[in-house]
Amino acid sequence: MSVLHRKDILRTDLLSDEELELILSTAARFEGELQAGGRLHNMAGQILATLFFEPSTRTRLSFETAMQRLGGGVITVADSKTSSAAKGESLADSARTVAGYADVIVIRHPRQGSAQEVADAVDVPVINAGDGAGQHPTQALLDVYTIQKETGAREGLTVTLAGDLKYGRTVHSLSHLLARFGCRLFFVAPAGLEMPARITADLRKVGAEIGETTDLVAAVGESDVVYMTRIQRERFEDPAEYERLRGSYVIDSALLQQAKPGITIMHPLPRVGEIALEVDAYEGAAYFRQVANGVPIRMALLALVAGRE
Amino acid sequence: MSVLHRKDILRTDLLSDEELELILSTAARFEGELQAGGRLHNMAGQILATLFFEPSTRTRLSFETAMQRLGGGVITVADSKTSSAAKGESLADSARTVAGYADVIVIRHPRQGSAQEVADAVDVPVINAGDGAGQHPTQALLDVYTIQKETGAREGLTVTLAGDLKYGRTVHSLSHLLARFGCRLFFVAPAGLEMPARITADLRKVGAEIGETTDLVAAVGESDVVYMTRIQRERFEDPAEYERLRGSYVIDSALLQQAKPGITIMHPLPRVGEIALEVDAYEGAAYFRQVANGVPIRMALLALVAGRE
Amino acid sequence: MSVLHRKDILRTDLLSDEELELILSTAARFEGELQAGGRLHNMAGQILATLFFEPSTRTRLSFETAMQRLGGGVITVADSKTSSAAKGESLADSARTVAGYADVIVIRHPRQGSAQEVADAVDVPVINAGDGAGQHPTQALLDVYTIQKETGAREGLTVTLAGDLKYGRTVHSLSHLLARFGCRLFFVAPAGLEMPARITADLRKVGAEIGETTDLVAAVGESDVVYMTRIQRERFEDPAEYERLRGSYVIDSALLQQAKPGITIMHPLPRVGEIALEVDAYEGAAYFRQVANGVPIRMALLALVAGRE
């Protein structure tokens, strides 16, 4: 049994180096076995419950795929409006009920701290699939896995994170992980959507080299990886301001010309214009490979917490 | 093949003693095999269709888990608004269509008699997962299974049923089963929500010893099991009356002090205050074990009607 | 590997005779194996993604059943309102994401040409489960499979297609297939809902013998098969006109008396009065067998495009 057996996966900053390595290497092993045409039975006879208290089709499908690729079964609550929560049941009671059915629970909930609340209520392992302004550890892990696969490295890279860095939960967790690997980070965000000061302070505390700018061109000129995120219209009071800013945080062929040769382009998806369609043909355009990497990462997590890796 | 092969499970009162024993013993066998780490394949290659014409997440997940624990597959219609019923298709036609896909059908429908209607329309076995004011036999069966597991007995127990006994479909079926086992029953309900007279008359006819009271304390003082149910706000014209009554039908630590030592506490869930959170730590608090017992009971039913026990 | 390996199934008119035969014979083989109690593992370890951008419970359940009967797993997006499309993601991007999870994609979408769009975007095989006014090839294939099974023949039959022939996507594809087999066709439709002239012209071009009439009685008197479709209320401005016409396109026992003996009665379902309930007992009433035939046809398609037949 691994160090992660019976553990909850709630935040990336609680993962030890050993645990992190184990997740990444297990994911790589599973991916290799699938690509070789192998069939896996690690989770045969086991049930995963995915509880989505807010919609996230991509994350839900990725977990359901991962569990089934391992031979396991899935039960899903995708619409909380028709669930017992509507009858006034507490989250802890809903979780304890589902723990009577399933061997692992995945929870997505709009309230920060909800995943911890579920983990405290049940005996089965819990994986956080996003808890509001909190964490989304499986996304950060698949991002790191993607960077490693695409660049062949992980340490000492220069990575630009661009777009909405204030509300983008993903970039917060990812920054922490990249800082641990000694990456140099550029944060490129419009005024008002900058990386929160407490996060940059944290990152500098662990020795990260950080540059903050509004100049995307300059940043990608020095970066091995650029990680784009969506700027959401609802963050702006003035629609014209939104349109203006949005246009300045787009990767297109012209920008690619000014980027460091071989740069890897990532995006957690869905994109809504942040990456021009013409970029899709560029071989470093990794965003659809990135989303596919969610499957081996989640396979690894499921098998590890269930003690069936 | 067992006596239940190709049978429908529509109501508990139609089950013979032999059938009842078979269900309970098969559930116990499956539960033991799962707990020993065994993997079951009884329903491998088979398909269960779960048709939910009203939401019941708990019951749906329990059946889906049961089928998958037996190695079978599941197709689900969880939202009748997007189904063919919305185009004006009759329930019988919808059922006959699904019978072209599945080996067993589970139906939940708000109209009393709907499960019988489906059973009349199709050749595959049908299990009633609740038909309005009618029956909910799998809930009653898992309740009996729980009582037997928790108390180590079944016959000659004293059981208090408390809360909304008028509209609570579950307590009607359960009372009948407990009366068959020679249990003594206390019915504790606020005025207006008492057990219907026709049911108490029926129960007395089969020789049941029944006490009716509004005094929960007195009842639990003599009971081996107390079965709480939710009192629904919408049953009351006067909200103040609801709040007053609701408060007097709560199990908390203070009440536990006055209960018979070792009393088993049950609830079909979700609870909305009928059992204080402080009671969860009490070892006789059986409600979350009760909900988990829905899986082996439903595994037994699925395998028995499919002739694959 | 068959000629259909890695192919998309988007329209019936693009299928060669060889491909058509392969689909029908593979379906018959799978159906035989299931009926003999066999268990199939062709798609073991594989994942089917079913993307339903408009509801179609029947088609969705049929595909999910087919995949699971072959031992495969399923992920489903049944409600586009909660999917990434709601965040502004393009259909092509949604498809590319899902292609990172699944081995085969089934798509249902209200926009004509959407299935082709998905097929162009991804590397995995795509099956069209209905694209608006476009095609619904798997329905046409299961219809042909049913005609062959029910009549024991396929070539040289006389087939009446009745009801809404203008908007009925299914009857368009089916007519083309039947014309290829040299069937004689009667089109029976109320004024305003006739088979479009471009389709009858196409059919005559390939040598089909076609009769157009409003007289259902005369047509069924000479037909081996009658294929009824639903006339939708919303096609009529005048509700009285709808009620009048609707009543004249109904198969009941009286009409059956005037039909060719042994006539096979089909309907894509759901029916809303086009076939009287009294007809269900007639042995040539094939509509519920027809809907069940969707499973072996879709099993055949899944296995063939995945190269696992």
Structure notes:
- Three copies of one chain form a homotrimer.
- Chain A is α/β, with parallel strands linked by helices and 309 residues long.
- The first copy, chain A, folds into two domains: 12-135 and 294-305, Rossmann fold (3-Layer(aba) Sandwich), CATH 3.40.50.1370; 138-291, Aspartate/ornithine carbamoyltransferase (Rossmann fold, 3-Layer(aba) Sandwich).
- Chain A is 40% helix and 15% strand.
- The first copy, chain A, has a five-stranded parallel beta sheet.
- In chain A, strand 5 (158-162), helix 6 and strand 6 (184-188) form a beta-alpha-beta unit.
- In chain A, helix 1 (17-35) packs across helix 12, helix 2 packs across helix 12 and helix 5 crosses helix 6.
- The termini of chain A are close together.
- The mean pLDDT of chain A is 93.
- Chains in contact: A-B, A-C, B-C.
Q: Segments of chain A where pLDDT lies below 50 for 5+ residues? A: none
Please state the second-level CATH architecture of the largest domain in chain A. 3-Layer(aba) Sandwich
Mean pLDDT of chain A: 93
Helix content of chain A: 40-55%
Q: Class by helix and strand content of chain A? A: alpha/beta
Number of helices of chain A: 12
| SSE order of chain A, one letter for each helix or strand | HEHEHEHEHEHEHEHEHHEHH
Number of domains of chain A: 2
Q: Name the beta content range of chain A.
A: 5-15%
What is the overall silhouette of chain A? globular
